[in-house]
Amino acid sequence: MSAGQIAALIAAGAFVLLVLLLAIPLIKLGRTLDEATIAIRRAHENTDPLLHGANDTITHVNTQLQRVDGITANAQAVTGNVSALSSVFTATLGGPLVKTAALSYGITKAIRARRRARTIEAGRHARRKGARR
């Protein structure tokens, strides 16, 4: 055997060793890809019930929102009616009621002023009588 053949055998052995060392990570990578494929398949199978549940929930929420929308519309109508009723009350009874209150206040004030004037006049009259004696 010549030196070239021995060198070729050593090179071939090193190449086989290199291939064996690279085969181990490739086998592990293949197993990892298989596990990832299985996990993706399971996730895909489990999404169907999840999506159906989400769809049912969204349908229920939409129904509740329609009810709330109706309640809001009714509350808005009630608010408009109360505002109109308040305006009618103010227009029909508010003016006369304010005038009546002002009149009664004025009459009360006039009566008090008259009573004070009489009290003061009575006091003056009593002083005059006392001064004459």
Automatic annotation (TrEMBL):
InterPro entries xref list: UPF0478
Domain of life the protein comes from: Bacteria
Keywords for this protein: Membrane, Transmembrane, Transmembrane helix
Membrane-traversing stretches: 6-27
Name of protein: DUF948 domain-containing protein
Originating species: Amycolatopsis arida
Lineage, top ranks: Bacteria, Bacillati, Actinomycetota, Actinomycetes, Pseudonocardiales
